[in-house]
Amino acid sequence: MEKVAIVILNWNGQKMLEKYLPSVIQYSKDEATVYVADNASTDQSMAMLKAHFPEVKLIQLDKNWGFAEGYNKSLQQIEAEYYLLLNSDIEVTAHWLTPMIEYMDRHEDVAACQPKLLSIFERSRFEYAGACGGYLDKYGYPFCRGRIFETVEEDRGQYDTEADLLWATGAALMIRAKDYWAVKGLDARFFAHNEEIDLCWRLRIRGRRIVCIPESKVYHVGGGTLPKGNPMKTYLNFRNNLTMLYKCLPEEELKGVMRWRWFLDYLAAWEMLILKRNMGDFKAIYRARKAFKQWRKDFEGDRREIQASRQFKKIPERKDFSLLWQYYAKGRKVFSSLP
């Protein structure tokens, strides 16, 4: 069995692989095996990999299964102590793996961890997708050490301490294989977006820890799957976030939070239409609400199982405040200013 398997899920990402895979191989080959799992790409990704990166192991899937199920089907074919799910648009740095491996080896109660995530375009600034580790507010809005909504901080070393999280970014997620499969992996029904938050929340409910190791540092392009402003991205984010809340919220909070989200989601939709003149996102939010209502019953069994696994009522990394209120009403734009 391998110690660490780095698995890059690819779909028509030949250019990203050509540009960023060399750094992964250079700085990981002594500590990990590098895999590329391909979601039935129609570009020349596989031919390029076979010709120029023969040291990389290939897993070829029969169709585009999306992020969640693509990883599930790929990881089923790998025996390793730790999986490291890595986006194809990540540039890694020297010795990036060592701090995460050593931390996980020392702390058996930690299920998953992430490195510090910085922007490849502004290298002194955090990257939106995960920064220095993720949390949720009372109503399911995600935020990070280093990023709240659209405000992304400059990295001045202010978050250079190891910290417990609610969720680690799926762009560079190291996770114990036994923990991954204990909760049945990523939820394939999500297809993409919010799937790593859902996975990590389910692990936290079981009492497992999620941690950021900022000594490890990588650079991320971001937005490679679906760019910001894409209505499909908006649809998946809203639908999947609501589904995650339904699965994971404790019983005493479920109705209240869902009522507030009904109001907040439709408020967001009308803001998109009236203030931003964005008909695509307006329709996407309505479609997401409708889709969640239609498939909610499919997750009743998941909810019962998750709640039965709950080790404690309150998870400290899921905060009691409203992030919208803190950000827009109180003007608290950076993580360190939050309650």
Can you give a write-up of this model?
By secondary structure, this protein is of the alpha/beta class. Helices cover 40% and strands 20% of the residues. The chain is built from 11 helices and 13 strands. It has helices at 14-28, 45-52, 66-75, 97-106, 177-182, 195-205, 231-248, 251-274, 279-295, 300-308, 323-329; strands at residues 2-10, 33-38, 57-60, 80-86, 90-92, 110-119, 134-136, 142-144, 147-148, 151-152, 163-165, 172-176, 209-220. A hairpin with a 2-residue loop joins strand 9 (147-148) and strand 10. It starts with a strand and ends in a 10-residue tail after the last helix.
Write the layout of secondary structure elements.
Blueprint: E1 2-10, H1 14-28, E2 33-38, H2 45-52, E3 57-60, H3 66-75, E4 80-86, E5 90-92, H4 97-106, E6 110-119, E7 134-136, E8 142-144, E9 147-148, E10 151-152, E11 163-165, E12 172-176, H5 177-182, H6 195-205, E13 209-220, H7 231-248, H8 251-274, H9 279-295, H10 300-308, H11 323-329
Parallel strand pairs: 1-2, 1-4, 2-3, 6-13
Antiparallel strand pairs: 4-12, 5-13, 6-12, 7-8, 9-10, 11-13
Helix pairs in contact: 1-2, 6-7, 7-8, 7-9, 8-9
